[in-house]
């Protein structure tokens, strides 16, 4: 019976006990007693399985004793309870077939030792073979599945929103251009005709910064919806918290206000962390040992703590009275910087914080203007150790105010005419938020740099893969 390492370690012993496991060698150790211990991993779980190879194997001297890290092998033998410490089952091999050798093991970039994360970033194509990236990859998968499960259980529908777009969903001018209107500079064929083959939209198009405006359309018909897809931002992404290409989860709910939105965000995050604790104990234990001692307790306390809700105006007062020296100024009307967010959530409250009702001039045009006329119904969820992880708002459902806000930000209403239609035909209060998926992975895995939370990070200077 061919099975995964995870199944073998779980003791799925078939009738007769004969199994085949396929994977890559982690390490090999030879004993004087004419045995070699080959640990084999196939990525199905954190642990490798130990394959005990006796010197009676026909290729023992010629092959088995030359196995090195990352050689690909197919191992057949008897699955038995292991006498060794810390491992449940092992395979007493009756055959080891080598399907791929590692040429020149001494110069192989992934040596069986702990490499620095900086070094591993230069090998985005080989780093999935390390313990850490195996663990991060499985946790990331667990989180993705939990995202869909959470929404599916609550009757949300998943909407695939476009990646190529003409409208700037955040109105912040941070879009990467796909096709240009600059016809004068387009290539021409031999007859002097403009070659539109690579600019086939015939208008200026960009990569999306957010699926929100598109998903609002579906919210205003299906009530509860979400997007989960890639988004792109041409902002200064040379930080440990920003990527030029990242994944975002954006739920949108109809007949809902900012409090409903904050409730959803809290329930959602707690659900996701619960899923990782329940399903990825093996990977979390490794992360707690190698990356961040608090990995497990941090998630547990996050789940058990009610989020604190603070008005932006009160947050400013708290920051001003903190007596703490910040690099950036703290003043009503200015946006909170990471250092301010971290002080609030880590030092002041010690729990996740939802900051609500920001000054209208520093937030996006689509956010609902509050009755005070100077704040909007916006929220940011701040997590200890990372700062902003979610940004959301109640949307401006009144057409006249939406138009005035667009005017104020210098946006062309003609560009957003389709979006204005929602306010003209059956408008309702509605709200939503965006969770940066890699920020979530960073938080769960205790990573210091967001470039280690995605397989192929896109940030200045990293696009060679
Ligand atoms: O706060 P943001 O810009 O909000 C929106 O895009 C709204 N349209 C969301 C909504 O209401 N539907 O981004 C949301 C989240 C941030 O809180 C952050 O976690 C993440 O997206 N994010 C980034 N993650 C990685 N790299 C970047 N450059 C990011 N920019 C935002
Ligand atoms: Mg934000």
What does this structure look like?
The protein is of the alpha+beta class and 465 residues long. Helix content is 29%, strand content 24%. The chain contains twelve helices and 16 strands. It has helices at residues 5-9, 117-121, 131-153, 212-222, 258-279, 281-290, 295-304, 312-320, 338-349, 399-408, 417-424, 437-445, and strands at 18-31, 35-41, 49-54, 72-81, 89-100, 157-158, 164-165, 177-179, 205-207, 224-232, 245-254, 308-311, 353-359, 375-383, 387-394, 430-436. The protein has an eight-stranded mixed sheet with strand order 6-10-11-16-15-14-13-12, sandwiched between helices. Strands 1-2-3-5-4 form a five-stranded mixed beta barrel. α3 crosses α5, α3 (131-153) packs across α6 (281-290) and α5 runs antiparallel to α7. The longest helix has 23 residues, at 131-153. It is globular and about 85 Å long. The model has no long low-confidence stretch (mean pLDDT 94). Bound molecules: 4-amino-1,4-dioxobutan-2-aminium adenosine-5'-monophosphate (4AD) and magnesium ion. Magnesium ion is lined by residues 380, 388, 391. The site of magnesium ion has 3 residues, from β15. Pfam families: tRNA-synt_2 (PF00152), tRNA_anti-codon (PF01336). It is found in: Cytoplasm.
What is the rounded distance between the termini?
37 Å
H/I helix tally: 12
| Fraction in beta strands | 15-25%
How confident overall, as mean pLDDT? 94
Largest sheet: 8 strands, mixed
Radius of gyration: 27 Å
Q: Numbering strands along the chain, what is their spatial order in the largest sheet?
A: 6-10-11-16-15-14-13-12
Which molecules are bound besides the chains?
4-amino-1,4-dioxobutan-2-aminium adenosine-5'-monophosphate, magnesium ion
How many beta-strand segments?
Answer: 16
Helix content: 25-40%
Structural class: alpha+beta
- The rough form would be described as globular
Give, in order, the helices and strands: HEEEEEHHEEEEHEEHHHEHHEEEHHEH
Outline the low-pLDDT stretches. Answer: none
Main location: cytoplasm
Subunit structure: Homodimer.
Protein name: Asparagine--tRNA ligase
Catalytic activity: tRNA(Asn) + L-asparagine + ATP = L-asparaginyl-tRNA(Asn) + AMP + diphosphate + H(+)
């Amino acid at each position: 019976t061919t099975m995964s390492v995870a199944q073998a370690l779980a003791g799925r012993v078939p009738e007769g006990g004969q199994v085949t496991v396929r994977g890559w060698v982690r390490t090999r150790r030879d004993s004087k007693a004419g045995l070699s211990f080959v640990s084999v991993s196939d990525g199905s779980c954190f642990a490798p399985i130990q394959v005990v190879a006796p010197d009676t194997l026909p290729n023992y001297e010629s092959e088995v004793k030359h196995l090195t890290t990352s050689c690909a092998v197919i191992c057949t033998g008897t699955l038995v309870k292991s006498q060794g410490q810390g491992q449940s089952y092992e395979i007493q091999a009756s055959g080891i077939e080598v399907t791929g050798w590692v040429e020149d093991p001494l110069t192989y970039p992934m040596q069986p030792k702990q490499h620095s994360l900086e070094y591993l970033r230069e090998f985005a194509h080989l780093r999935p073979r390390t313990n850490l990236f195996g663990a991060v990859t499985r946790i990331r998968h667990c989180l993705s599945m939990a995202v869909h499960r959470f929404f599916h259980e609550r009757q949300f529908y998943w909407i695939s929103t476009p990646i190529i777009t003409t409208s700037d969903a955040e109105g912040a001018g941070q879009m990467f251009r796909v096709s240009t209107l600059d016809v004068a500079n387009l290539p021409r064929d031999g007859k002097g005709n403009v070659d539109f083959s690579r600019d086939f939209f015939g208008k200026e198009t960009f990569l999306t910064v957010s699926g929100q405006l598109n998903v609002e359309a579906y919210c205003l018909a299906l009530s509860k919806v979400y997007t989960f897809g890639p988004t792109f931002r041409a902002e200064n992404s040379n930080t440990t918290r920003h990527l030029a290409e990242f994944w975002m989860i954006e739920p949108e709910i109809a007949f809902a206000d900012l409090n409903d939105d904050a409730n959803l965000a809290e329930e959602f995050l707690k659900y996701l962390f619960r899923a990782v604790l329940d399903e990825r104990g093996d990977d979390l234990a490794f992360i707690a040992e190698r990356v961040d001692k608090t990995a497990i307790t941090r998630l547990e306390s996050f789940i058990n703590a009610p989020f604190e809700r603070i008005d932006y105006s009160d947050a400013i007062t708290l920051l001003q009275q903190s007596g703490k020296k910040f690099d950036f100024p703290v003043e009503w009307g200015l946006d909170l910087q990471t250092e301010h967010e971290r002080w609030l959530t880590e030092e002041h409250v010690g729990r996740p914080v939802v900051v609500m009702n920001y000054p209208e001039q520093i937030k996006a045009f689509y956010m609902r203007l509050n009755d005070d006329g100077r704040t909007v119904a916006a929220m940011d969820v701040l997590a200890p150790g990372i700062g902003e992880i979610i940004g959301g708002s109640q949307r401006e459902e009144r057409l006249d105010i939406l138009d005035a806000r667009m005017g104020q930000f210098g946006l062309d209403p003609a560009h957003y005419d389709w979006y204005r239609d929602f306010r003209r035909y059956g408008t309702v209060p509605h709200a939503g938020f965006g969770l940066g998926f890699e920020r979530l992975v960073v938080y769960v895995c205790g990573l210091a740099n967001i470039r280690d939370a995605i397989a192929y990070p896109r940030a200045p200077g990293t696009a060679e893969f």
